[in-house]
Design brief:
This protein is mostly beta strands and about 300 residues long. It contains no helices and 28 strands. A 9-stranded parallel beta sheet has the order 1-4-7-10-15-18-21-24-27, with no helix packed on it. It is globular.
Length: about 300
């Protein structure tokens, strides 16, 4: 669904839908194990990439029993143009419910518009503009069918920018303990320049369910509750993250709460930071503690 994004003709513009579907892009029933790629779509913005053209739904809604790539596939070909823009919807930016087998969500712009034709994404264009729409997160995972989930990736082109949403940047709940999460190299609460404050109105990440959790090289700042709040899971690795600064790791951009909160009595292995270059976390300028652990 979509194109290579190298020109306007290679993108779908999905705008001004009035409801009747769960998402502006909805993938429901599929052949079990199908491969579904969703890339280079502009959802909730006009062709100038700035003017709001809201959809009365989630931006992308996935429940079919498939393996999904949403955004860049990281193969080195057209990665920088494969991003989806998901903004101005009345509910979640991207919703993954029960059914999907695996999901990679990488390189997307969620909750922002551009004032310069896509060179940077710094203008707030929040999802969840309707008070009656329910959850209003940048990415909402509510799936116990997933066996693997990756949000972000190693390369700059695989970074999601998740900002300005009325609830959490990333919300994970109602997921089984078998799922392994990797959340890597995302900007959450900042614009695509890594410095402009575009905080989410609740937390940066709220992880309420799941198994092995790996958080690396994310910048999670300016959010109105905790940077990262984990209340379930079997293990945690957190390395190289910046929680409460801009992408430079120097300029303060604190979350209103702790940088990292862990309250998961189910966890048997917690590894925060490391001795190798780049493994240390920078946790600074948050309103309360840097790291809070209880449970």
């Amino acid at each position: 669904i979509g194109g290579n994004g190298t020109a306007a003709a290679g993108r779908n513009f999905i705008a001004n839908s009035t409801g009747g579907f769960n998402g502006a892009i909805t993938v429901g029933t599929t052949a079990s194990g199908a491969t579904v790629t969703i890339k280079s779509n502009i959802i909730g913005l006009a062709a100038d990439l700035s003017t709001a053209a809201a959809n009365a739904s989630d931006g992308i809604y996935l429940t079919g029993a498939a393996n999904y790539t949403v955004g860049s596939n990281g193969d080195g070909t057209n990665d920088s143009t494969e991003y989806n823009v998901v903004s101005n919807g009345t509910a979640n930016g991207i919703y993954v419910g029960n059914g999907p087998l695996t999901a990679i969500i990488a390189g997307n712009i969620i909750g922002l518009a551009s004032a310069n034709s896509g060179s940077t994404w710094t203008t707030a264009a929040a999802n969840g503009t309707s008070a009656a729409a329910g959850s209003k997160n940048g990415i909402k995972i509510a799936s116990n069918s997933l066996t693997a989930l990756t949000i972000g990736g190693d390369a700059t082109e695989e970074r999601n920018v998740i900002a300005s949403n009325p609830e959490d940047g990333i919300k994970i709940s109602d997921a089984g303990s078998a799922i392994a999460y990797t959340i890597r190299n995302n900007y959450i609460g900042l614009a695509s320049d890594g410095s402009t404050d575009r905080g989410n109105s609740e937390g940066g990440m709220d992880i309420d369910d799941g198994g092995a959790i790996t958080l690396t090289d994310n910048v999670v700042s300016n959010n109105d509750v905790h940077g990262v709040d984990i209340s379930a899971g079997t293990s945690l690795v957190a390395k190289g993250n910046k929680l409460g600064t801009t992408a430079t790791g120097i300029v303060a951009a604190g979350n209103i709460g702790s940088g990292l909160t862990i309250a998961a009595s189910t966890m048997t292995d917690v590894d925060i930071g490391g001795s190798a270059s780049g493994e240390g976390n920078t946790i600074a300028a948050n309103t309360t503690q840097a790291v809070t652990g209880y449970g």
